[in-house]
Amino acid sequence: xxxxxxxxxxxxxxxxxxxxxxxxxxxxxxxxxxxxxxxxxxxxxxxxxxxxxxxxxxxxxxxxxxxxxxxxxxxxxxxxxxxxxxxxxxxxxxxxxxxxxxxxxx
Length: 106
Description:
Blueprint: E1 11-14, H1 16-23, E2 32-35, E3 38-45, E4 57-58, H2 61-68, H3 86-105
Parallel strand pairs: 1-3
Antiparallel strand pairs: 1-4, 2-3
């Protein structure tokens, strides 16, 4: 079962200014944006936050690595689905990042 935001999925969540630039006042959900000759389906938008935050495009980090050729990240943003899942989410992230680190070292 593949969810829209699974690893290497070609999906994006876009900020208000990106939405306006690509789609004007139209609903962007399910539509495609192209970045560096790669296409991504918009699966969501986030509320206006002001400033540069409204220019952001959020994608799974594995998607960014594969399709946009980004090897290193200065930060990542994560949100647990429920408050009681925070500790489990942190552990899963640590395990994933350590696996990726091992692949780079080897």
